[in-house]
């Protein structure tokens, strides 16, 4: 049994223990160590099935605890990938999108599962596969082979979509997935000035209204286009253009997608365009907010200026959105003056009226389909002409799209807005639009994330030029939140793992790359679970690479992650995956005697006495399903006299744990996977990640329940076939003998030997004969087992004792007659 270290908190000590040393305190009162909860994967699976019904824990959080046992504990460094920029996984995790090297195409890859490279890495041990040792030619060849083949093991190219051409290029940091995962929205930009001839934009194109920003040479205007790409078909469905504008495409800062509502912020013209994404992928413009708030407002303006040409940039009036902001601030000042019975709030409003009048839209986000959160700041901040934009004053406005009302306005020093953000952080992030179980770790749903935020707030408060106001500004600088900028992977959940957010965080932004691996500790036990090696471990990159950034892309559900480090003009890609090494011991070792005792059901047995004959009445026919014989599920299934249906007898069983097979029928026909479980009584195999079904668990009148994914069995006689490792195609096999007399499996199609997987010789705790180490305190020594303590001979028990003690019988025994 493992225990956590002893710890004494001074605020919980009694008065008579104050000022005493640790030894005196320990002698005065014995401390009770904290017991580490069970780390067995079988217990976690059982807890995952019940989903915390008997506790007050969120069922999704209870189901996520299973990920503490299944972790990406292996790193393959410097993976050879196609010439492209890897971007992000789809919400369901089945696809990965990337941008071509010339940034004209979108490449769509199919993700093959976390165990796709199991055969390739079966002879690998340790935590990473890095730089080979000098002089080891065989090891160097193996490392190069793994680097060259591992990308094709995990990903298969499905479509290459030509989106743009010419000087127009896609922004490789811009991508928005729809909630159903069928479409992705990408953005492209093209310079206004071409390479062959100079095209100066017209004055009326630069300034379309009186709120347009002043032209800045540092941030030139471009022609932007949004493209809707169908992921399944690999086609461009629709596109929308914005000429001579400035839209922040990087990290989706100028775009926001909430379900089927798309908002686009035009910084140059201070407009917010609202689109509706239809089921076929087409973009339908709904309204444009800025100069007007209603669709028919421009009709009244056109009726007013019918005899003379109207120029919008010369309008002396305040545009509709700015007018609503000023009216709300004025009414707020009037209400405050009436409450305080003083004209000071109203005078302050008129004092800062010019500042309010020159505010510009900086950022925005959709809170839901009807509400916008708009951030206003000065023009110097919006045009990036100031050093520290977060330290300048700014305002947050909550705007209703349906009735065009301003619901609230907060300053960037508002404690009320900070409290709302900390309490409803999940609503600001909108991370559960695709799946309810794919939620991000936030201060609103996790106490450890709240502690980290409070620690940062305390640091900014106690800083030299800090304070409570500065801390509030720093925290509210995260608003508005960019769309789909937080990872929903359970491995960044602070309720499960403890890690240093200096090197990796839930927000998908590049982080500094350190020289040591990123360590992830289990939250409930404090044990080191896995490490992630970013960059090249053990390689010197020179003094010119002091500033190294690395970006992480985690799979939403599987133990798989991609890290991309930029080194000068070269991109270093590492794969972090689940690898069963020699030290993995998650299960308990279950001997056959225990399985027999747990499986058999005895109705009656005679007492152990010489007066009774040995008789017993027990269950002799069992029903075999997906539950193993030593589990409670097996006992529950055999509660009644239900027998296993008749199955086709198989003379030579040819499937083993760890085999790669291909599904021959069903919805996953043509897909390949790894056999993880055998049920020979039913001719079944369980293939990892294939032939899955979803069932609703934990449904109550007040709780809708949760969908649990479980793998269903496949018949070895007709539904699966072994894969020939020489060409990765399904094949029939037969048993043969080699010249050494070893019985092997041979492919009938190619004649190649199909090797026996390493998992076939493992026990329930992944122990093999070659890697097993004896427990000196518990195990029986091998020399004691092999020692010969009995030699059979034709002697009675008395004669054997006399020979051992050296007693010789001199009397002649009498003859004995038997009747």
From TrEMBL:
GO terms for biological process: positive regulation of proteasomal ubiquitin-dependent protein catabolic process; protein ubiquitination; translation. One of its GO terms (molecular function) is ubiquitin protein ligase binding. It is found in: Mitochondrion. It comes from the Eukaryota. SMART domains: KOW. Its main location: mitochondrion. Residues 654-681 form the KOW domain. Keywords: Mitochondrion, Ribonucleoprotein, Ribosomal protein, Transit peptide. GO terms for cellular component: cullin-RING ubiquitin ligase complex; mitochondrion; nucleus; ribonucleoprotein complex; ribosome. PANTHER family: DET1 HOMOLOG, DET1 HOMOLOG DE-ETIOLATED-1 HOMOLOG. Belongs to the universal ribosomal protein uL24 family. This is Large ribosomal subunit protein uL24m. It comes from Darwinula stevensoni. The lineage of its organism: Eukaryota, Metazoa, Ecdysozoa, Arthropoda, Crustacea.
